Amino acid sequence: MRNYKSIGFNYTYILLYLTAIIIIFENNEDFNFFLENKYSFIVFLLITIIISINEIIVDREGIVKKFYLFPIKIKVKTWREIKFYVEVDEEYSGRYGKTIEKCIWFVDKNDKVCLRIKRALRHNFQEVLDVIDKYEEKAENKLKIDDPYLMSHGWRKVNEYIKIKDKP
Questions:
Q1: Distance between CA atoms of residues 94 and 16, nearest Å
Q2: Which of 145, 150, 147, 146 is nearest to 162 (CA)?
Q3: 56 Cβ contact list (under 8 Å, min separation 6)
Q4: What is the SS3 assignment for 134?
Q5: How far apart are CA 7 and CA 13, in angstroms?
Q6: Is the pLDDT reported for residue 69 higher than 90?
Q7: Binning pLDDT at 50, 70 and 90, where does residue 34 land?
Q8: Which of 39-48, 57-66, 89-98 has the least mean pLDDT?
Q9: CA triplet 144, 148, 150: central angle to 5 degrees?
């Protein structure tokens, strides 16, 4: 049984860690605090790096999302649980303007997102998508959704304007 893997990096956890260090340093203003707690900072940095790197594994049974350095599975979805997948441009509006994240949403039988994969900072992802095309249907249209906080985490149903290709 052949596995196809894609390794991705989520830099937001590293940015949160660095922000927390900056806030702690501004509040203490002395470098002795870091010297006394250097092992704690190193352990938290390692944990942050472990959480930041994930791996997508696709085989004939389904999709597995897990941490890269530890064999802890984040999500496991079989092909029976997934109805189709769709390419989505998630547009988030914030304080400094709009940001767009390109993602792949896997929708389950209840029309809710059961697995979300960011396309950015991912190695070998196109080969994995080619394998997914063998097992799953793809929505015809590419979606652009504004502020999909609840929908992207599976708490609300995906919009009804998704068109699915007819099987030949």
A1: 17
A2: 145
A3: 5, 6, 8, 63, 64, 65, 117, 122, 125, 128
A4: helix
A5: 16
A6: no
A7: low
A8: 39-48
A9: 150
**Contact status, residue 24 vs residue 33, Cβ threshold 8 Å:** yes
Helix ranges (DSSP H) in the chain? 12-28, 32-36, 38-52, 125-135, 149-152
Tokens for 168, please give them.
């030949």
CA 5 to chain CA centroid, Å, is: 14
Per-residue pLDDT tens digits for 120-141: 889 999 999 999 998 888 888 8
Select from 160, 147, 64 the least CA-distant residue to 107: 160
CA-to-CA dists, residue 101 to 5, 22, 29, 36, 113, angstroms:
21, 27, 37, 40, 16
Q: Which residues contact 143 (CB under 8 A, 6 or more apart)?
A: 86, 87, 88, 89, 159, 161, 162
Of the candidates 81, 65, 63, the residue with the CA atom closest to the CA atom of residue 73: 65
What is the C-alpha separation between 146 and 165, in angstroms, rounded? 24
Residue 98 to residues 29, 76, 93, 123, Cα–Cα distance (Å): 35, 32, 4, 26
3-state secondary structure of 147: coil
Taking 80 as the threshold, does the pLDDT of residue 165 lie above it?
Answer: no
How far is it, in rounded angstroms, from Cα 133 to Cα 152? 21
Q: What is the pTM of this model?
A: 0.82
